[in-house]
Design brief:
Elements (H helix, E strand, L loop, with lengths): L6 E8 L3 H12 L4 E4 L11 E4 L1 H10 L2 H5 L7 E6 L5 E5 H6 L7 E4 H9 L7 E2 L4 E9 L2 E8 L4 E9 L6 H6 L5 E13 L9 E7 L2 E7 L4 E9 L2 H7 L4 H11 L5 H8 L7 E7 L2 H6 L3 E2 L2 E3 L14 H23 L4 H33 L5 H23 L12 H11 L1
Parallel strand pairs: 1-2, 1-10, 2-7, 4-12, 10-17
Antiparallel strand pairs: 3-6, 4-5, 8-9, 9-10, 11-14, 11-15, 12-13, 13-14, 16-17
Family: Belongs to the 3-hydroxybenzoate 6-hydroxylase family.
Keywords: Monooxygenase, Oxidoreductase
GO molecular function: FAD binding; monooxygenase activity
């Protein structure tokens, strides 16, 4: 289905990433039809994998898809962090830190599998590919507002609610007045190792620290392992890595891992080159969330458009799933009163969502950045003491308690018929 001039939609979501698809699924479960605008011509499944912690699995349970993924991936049992400079090894038991809080524990999943699972919950015409937003305007009537979306192909879409899930450099976030994210000073390379004879990781996470760099590997399937390296940035790295040639990326990673254990180099050597990705690690300044607008009328943002953060607590995807459930819960609560989207009530729903997410997003951004600074803060004796004696033994457990957040359930019973009926009316 193509858009025509002056199409009217209840909810328009910009971006078909984790946040956008999860929000669309959550809205569907409360009976609200939405459309997703995606600038690419297909799902953007680039990126190897991501770790999902208990807070993400609670959100996925609310979305009704957790079981489809937990059947495919095994949870972590334990993790080891080795400081290669002084030889210290810290052991972390995921059973005690995370599984006691939620039975699904922590697991690494293919990013592609997560996106396809979410997309599979939506009607076939819910995602509009090759649809790029040009600009946004709003029209206010009384206390309610309507968003007018201008698309590059000349179409105009009216939206009672507009949700920007359009990534780190979000046009919707810019329209709200949020500043561009800033560079953390580090880069990351990630990939999948394919080992037909097995990787021997035994459901464990292994991380290694060396002079400001951190690298790690964990199981994904019986024959696939997910690895990463994060390292301080240099101008020459940025110039070379931006070219994106997979063989060059692999070679550069092997150079950076010269002082790391041979086992880690083997995983990089066995990589599927199509899964390699390089990216600068960006974050939104926490005070930007405190002092600037996270919504205007019926417009707001979610996922990386709201809270880009470094990956040091593994909360980028997890918090995006939280956003989706909480935003849909507030929209659904008002929707279920009238079985209709009432613009003035949607403004209040968006405000409640922002109120609930602002402080948690700020805390996750700050905690992730500080976690990265401590873990990759060099090898001086004071930093080693803070990292080995305080951070891994005490502070990380407190951070785990914080990230274990229950986003709650959705106010729905069986919305599929309502959504289908509404869709038939539109047709």
């Amino acid at each position: 289905m193509e858009f025509h001039t002056q199409e009217l939609e209840d909810v328009v979501i910009v971006g078909a990433g984790i946040a956008g698809l999860a929000t669309a699924v959550a809205l569907k479960r409360v009976g609200v039809r939405s459309v997703v605008l995606e600038r690419s011509d297909e799902l953007r499944t680039t990126g190897a994998a991501l770790s999902l912690f208990p807070n993400a699995w609670i959100a996925l349970e609310a979305l009704g898809v957790a079981q489809k993924l937990t059947d495919m991936y095994r949870p972590f049992k334990r993790g080891y962090v080795t400081n290669l400079v002084n030889g210290s090894v810290q052991e972390m038991s995921f059973n005690s830190v995370l599984d006691e809080w939620n039975a699904n524990g922590a697991r690494t999943v293919h990013r592609k599998a997560l996106l396809e699972t979410l997309a599979g919950e939506l009607p076939s015409d819910a995602i509009h590919y090759s649809t790029k937003l040009s600009f946004i305007e709003t029209r206010t009537q009384g206390d309610s507002s309507m968003s007018i979306l201008h698309v590059e192909d000349g179409s105009i879409i009216k939206a009672k609610v507009l949700i920007g899930c359009d990534g780190i450099h979000s046009p919707v976030a810019s329209w709200l007045g949020l500043s561009e994210p800033v560079h953390s000073g580090r880069f990351a390379v990630r990939g999948l190792a394919v080992m037909p004879q097995g990787h021997g990781l035994n459901n464990e996470v292994h991380q290694f620290l060396h002079n400001g760099s951190r690298a790690g590997v964990t199981h994904l399937t019986d024959t696939e392992a997910y690895w990463f390296i994060t390292y301080p940035s240099t101008f020459s790295d940025e110039e070379e890595m931006r070219a994106g040639d997979p063989k060059m990326l692999q070679r550069k990673v092997l150079e950076k891992l010269a002082n790391f254990p041979p086992m880690l180099l083997e995983y990089v050597q066995q990589s599927d080159l199509t899964t390699l990705s390089w990216a600068p690690l960006m974050l939104r300044l926490p005070w930007d969330l405190l002092f600037k607008n996270l919504s205007k009328g019926n417009v707001t943002v979610a996922g990386d458009a709201l809270h880009p953060m470094t990956p040091d607590l593994g909360q980028g995807g997890c918090s995006a799933l939280e956003d989706a459930v909480i935003l849909a819960r507030h929209i659904g609560t008002y929707y279920l009163k009238h079985k209709n989207i009432v613009p003035i009530e949607m403004t209040e729903a968006v405000k409640l969502y922002v109120k609930e997410r602002r402080w948690r997003a700020m805390a996750l951004i700050t905690g992730s950045y500080l976690s990265g600074r401590v873990q990759q803060g060099g090898s001086k004796w004071m930093m080693n003491f803070i990292r080995d004696k305080l951070f891994y033994r005490f502070l990380l457990r407190r951070m785990a308690d914080f990230i274990n957040f229950d986003c709650g359930k959705l106010p729905c019973v069986n919305p599929s018929k309502e959504v289908d009926d509404e869709h038939n009316k539109i047709e």
